[in-house]
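$ run holo --ligand "PPS" --emit tokens
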Amino acid sequence: MSENKKVLHRATAVMAKGIVLSVDIASNIDAICAFRPDPSDLLIASYPKSGTSWMLEIVDLLLHNGDAKICRQAPLSMRVPFLEMSDRLGSQPGLDMLKEMDPPRIIKTHLPFQLIPSGFWENKCKTIYVTRNAKDTVVSFYQFQQMNLTSADPGSWEGYLQRFMHEGWLYGPWYDHVKGYWEERKKRNILYVFYEDMKENLCREVTRIMRYLDLSLSDDVINRIVDLTTFDNMKDNPMANYTFVPKEIFDTSIASYMRKGEVGDWKNHFTPQQSAEFDKVYETKMKEVNIPFRTEL
Ligand code: PPS
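-- output --
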């Protein structure tokens, strides 16, 4: 077996600190939780498939005054360390990248609130949480786990959906993830951003993010950033569309990373019965909070 083939197996999912994680992340969780950020570091957190890369590209452009040349110098995964990531996706592990990069850094994570290294809160690091309605998220995550040949095997759509609804998949239950950051957002000064709001009015949301970052950019620069980060333009940008991940890892014959980028695509995947059951479970799990998710625009 070649060296390359050795890493190409689907990771198993195991429980660590009460959360289901890919085994490579679980085995390193103590080091991940002990990471000490700099106060100037910016954390971008999300449940997987909620628009993380979209947010990373926007923030990187905002921090570089909309200079597309700077943001096209390297793939997103090299510009932004992925805190908990091992070398599973063929790039350097997040903690190693962080050792080599000087602050201020943009740091990506999918960890639930309770696993975020406490240093982020002690140092009052700015944090943006990007989130997306559960139905589109589970569709996107399922497609992604199928095409990402290093990810835990998602099995059948029906089985996957049942597990997402009742127990939760990687990174724990979606409900707990979104509630965790929602409940802490005021105390920790977390900017909570909805994917659907970005789809509805990207200029408004980019301006909101700019203000949170204490930046003041011209309307021209904001409009340029909005244009550079539309779905079509990011899909065409080889430094943001994840075509830089080898085909042996992301099998794009199954689905592309920049797949559809829509609100309401779940309607093409859920049966009416699945949708009704999902809504019922959702109501119970989310009853104590009123987070304004939208499943269509
Ligand atoms: S990851 O791998 O968990 O970090 O994925 P993440 O980036 O969070 O989410 C991927 C989904 O976001 C869509 N996407 C976008 N939608 C609209 N506009 C832009 N610019 C954009 N960039 C990425 C991407 O297509 C995935 O959603 P689906 O529904 O699968 O298309």
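-- notes --
Strands lie at 13-16, 19-22, 42-46, 106-109, 126-131, 190-194.
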